[in-house]
Amino acid sequence: GIQVEQSPPDLILQEGANSTLRCNFSDSVNNLQWFHQNPWGQLINLFYIPSGTKQNGRLSATTVATERYSLLYISSSQTTDSGVYFCAVETSGSRLTFGEGTQLTVNP
Amino acid sequence: ETGVTQTPRHLVMGMTNKKSLKCEQHLGHNAMYWYKQSAKKPLELMFVYNFKEQTENNSVPSRFSPECPNSSHLFLHLHTLQPEDSALYLCASSQVGDGYTFGSGTRLTVV
């Protein structure tokens, strides 16, 4: 099946800093999503982005489908951004497959 | 109410109990899913329903029994579970072009 690798596995930031999270995948995809899992376990959909660039407030994402990677940018980070960020992909032959996540901690 | 709603949020059950998890989606999606998230592990797909028909069972033990009475509701019936089944159970729905939307999850503890 498809492989999804996220980096870095852990990231600690000071409030106000910027960061970039990366997701590499091993096959062509027809769906790629970025999720934020909060401390209570809820998975919040950040972006549905199989290709191109999208922005939502302080967050933006870019997927380069031909090179099989996606990037999630967080600018001016806040303590409420803490949690686990998952990249998940879906191919025509497989269901949504998750990476192992990036654990982000933003300190005040 | 919008999105995907799961109940209960927390559940503690003994190994001989029978309980059910409920999921309801208000998005008009045609596919629904159960995922399991254990500590320190990636999310694992359990079951897939399309237009209320089960299309995938990802080698899940029979002590987990899904039910999908219509395209908006999904249940997971639990019986004679083991302590290692303690996990966060997440329901999701999806539609082509719209991606997946997840519920808040049920945190299950088997004692």
Could you walk me through the main structural features you see in this protein, from its secondary elements to its overall organization?
The complex is a heterodimer of chains A (about 110) and B (about 110). Chain A is mostly beta strands. Chain A is about 0% helix and about 60% strand. Chain A has no helices and 11 strands. In chain A, strands 2, 4, 5, 9, 10 and 11 form a 6-stranded mixed β-sheet that branches. Chain A has a 5-stranded antiparallel β-sheet with strand order 1-3-8-7-6, with no helix packed on it. Chain B has about 110 residues and is mainly β. Chain B has strands at about 5, 10-15, 20-25, 30-35, 45-50, 55, 65-70, 75-80, 85-95, 100, 105-110. In chain B, strand 7 (about 65-70) and strand 8 (about 75-80) form a beta hairpin. The N and C termini of chain B lie far apart (about 35 Å). The model of chain B has no long low-confidence stretch (mean pLDDT about 90). The chains are: A mainly beta (about 110), B mainly beta (about 110).
Rg calc of chain A: 13 Å
Shape of chain B: globular
Largest interface: A-B, 17 and 20 residues
Oligomer: heterodimer
- The number of helical elements of chain A comes to 0
Mean pLDDT of chain B: 92
The rounded distance between the terminal residues' Cα atoms of chain A is 40 Å
User: Please, what is the average pLDDT of chain A?
Assistant: 94
The geometry of chain A reads as: globular
Keywords:
heterodimer, A: 108 residues, mainly beta, 6-stranded mixed beta sheet, 5-stranded antiparallel beta sheet, 11 strands, B: 111 residues, 7-stranded mixed beta sheet, 4-stranded antiparallel beta sheet, 60% strand, globular
Summarize the structure.
Chain A is mainly β. Helices cover 0% and strands 61% of the residues of chain A. In chain A, strand 7 (59-64) and strand 8 (69-74) form a beta hairpin.
